[in-house]
Specification:
Two copies of one chain form a homodimer. Chain A has about 200 residues and is of the alpha/beta class. The first copy, chain A, has five helices and eleven strands; from the N terminus they run αβββαβαββββαβαββ. Chain A is globular and about 45 Å long. At the A-B interface, strand 3, helix 2, helix 3 and strand 5 of A face strand 3, helix 2, helix 3 and strand 5 of B. Strand 3 of chain A pairs antiparallel with strand 5 of chain B, so a sheet runs across the interface.
């Protein structure tokens, strides 16, 4: 997606060969107009799949999921990272290890909001090693729902997450695919071949 | 706001005389069409204030803030609850005690995204004792920015937060104001007088 790639080039900051900081428009400050375009793009890509629910993870997935849900006209669920006092019902839970934060989080979704009739689109901001996507997938499986695909804003294609998911036959749509962050420079995957 | 009040009546669950659960459409599952209407409503109410930034708190404030930002065409910042490894710049910080979760969180906003020229609209899902709003206000003050108002989805008008903020001369716009949750029933504040 040209618009997102341009934004990454202009406002992203490469902190190391594995860390790209996008705090200026995705995960601390949000560009709401960009998020609207992103939501429209995901809605276009998954419009034929009969999606009934969008599942994301707090917090950075919420804005793009909200916009995708608005364009597809379906509810959005965000998995919670900790149990709160008002989230004490029957829960699907999964463990997600964050390499960035070096900690493991239990994520949880109430039984009330996903069931076996649902066709779920998982959305997240980053795909690197795939831990968050696998945690969300595990929740979809527990609900007996159908996974229709995974939408990602930024895939670090030099890490193994995307390949692992695609090898399982899952449709993964990443709006920007980064081949390398070496030498402080963002290099995108060439778009010649299909992803 | 009629639409939000109806949603609260139909899908909210009163857990006690002080706890209203809105997990079905605000803070676990999100109704994206409702959020669009909420964003439009806040944009209308604050359209004359020259807002340059919207400030909210992860996670439940993000969806309504995204929509308000989209309608006002201004960036949204969500304060982070913990320091993450990629959020290690110069930070404005504040301490917020959550009575619901019975814990204190440090919230943080990077210096990069709010400055003395900004006119800030604070948004949050609930206003009860006012702790979160005061924490966000403290961040606006540290930045030397101007606070133009506070937008709230659901105000528990039987708690002291809203009165405290209004007594400080702050414009607080709450889309639904709850007078009581006694006897398992949601009673809204009568709309005869101005709020």
């Amino acid at each position: 997606m040209e618009l997102l790639e341009r934004k990454i080039r202009e406002e992203g900051r490469v902190l190391s060969a594995s860390v790209l900081k996008v705090d200026a428009f995705i995960n601390h400050q949000i560009d709401p107009v960009l998020m609207d375009s992103i939501g429209r793009e995901f809605a276009d890509r998954f419009s034929g799949e009969g999606i009934t629910k969008i599942l994301t993870l707090e917090s950075s997935g919420i804005a793009p999921a909200q916009m995708t849900g608005l364009h597809l006209q379906v509810p959005v669920i965000f998995a919670r990272k900790r149990r709160s006092l008002t989230l004490n019902d029957q829960l699907y839970t999964s463990e997600v290890y964050s390499f960035t934060k070096e900690q493991s989080n239990e994520i949880a979704v109430s039984h009330d909001f996903i069931n076996a009739d649902d066709h779920v689109l998982i959305l997240d901001d980053f795909l690197a090693n795939g831990q968050a996507a696998l945690g969300l997938l595990h929740i979809v499986e527990q609900a007996g729902a159908s996974l229709e695909g995974i939408g990602i804003l930024i895939e670090k294609a030099f890490q193994e997450g995307g390949e692992g998911l695609r090898n399982r036959g899952i449709r993964v749509e990443s709006l920007a695919r980064i081949a390398s962050l070496e030498n402080g420079r963002v290099q995108f995957v060439e778009k010649v071949g299909a992803q």
